[in-house]
Sequence to fold (306 residues):
Amino acid sequence: MVIPYYGFKFQIFLLFISVCFNPPSVFAQDKMLRDDIQKIITEADGKIGVAVKFLDSGDTLTVNNDYKYPMQSVYKFPLAFAVLNMIDKGEYSLKHEIRITKGELLQDTWSPLRDKYPEGDVDIPMSEILTYTVSISDNNGCDILFRLAGGPGNVEEYIHGLGIKDIAIISTEQEMHADRQLQYKNWCKPMAMVSLFELLNEGKHLSAESNNFLYKILAETSTGTNRIKGLLPERTVVAHKTGSSGYNDKGIASATNDAGIVELPDGRKFAIAVFVSDYKGDEKTCESIIAKISKAVWDYYLNPEK
Fold:
């Protein structure tokens, strides 16, 4: 094929622009970060998926993103997103009180909400149920919200409607407790969760009140402090949601996860998801792997030329 002279000059111009705005060092730095993450991952005996998006530039990086990782309680974030959408539509309000019976406060599950109201039969504001479910990862609160939303299927449909397709929300906490294999049907690819956090950061799909409330209760998360936040400077704001399966009788943890938005000192942010599945080893070591990955991204973002 013969390229006309003006076409050849245009191609040279495009090459010039590409080199100017994407110098070779940038590609080398991306490779450095990827290599750092890969090196950290080799420490673990399990499947580890990572996704990162720099929210100011839109640059992304993924490692082992194609596997369907069980979410465990990370799925309480999309659940809260869906419930707050219902609030924005006028079906409820943050002040709306929900009647909670004693029978809904199951005993054999993680539930600070039940510990606060052991006898049940109380009216609890929606804002409080959401806070317990997201910030403290309450399982009874989660299933109460699923019932209000019409079940996991409705939540999945809403999230898919936002354009987040690589996620499946199939069963409740109670159902997963009854059958551990069900947790593998509540799956997500890391980049899909990062994309949902990006939508939260954009603030375009919920009202300002609902969006700010959700960001706040994510930033107040008290679980998994040794994961994404583990090696970051004290007082770093991380709006995140953790998920943990615990260990089965073979000493394998199906899910040890964390995903969220990290705020840097200069005001920039990155969204990150680290999912660890079928891990053989102690929880402290597993959490340290997540922390090291988060710190590697933090260091790269602040000092990209290092």
Summary: The two ends are 44 Å apart (CA to CA). Strands lie at 47-54, 60-63, 69-70, 97-100, 122-125, 187-188, 238-244, 252-263, 269-280. The first strand starts at residue 47 and ends at 54.
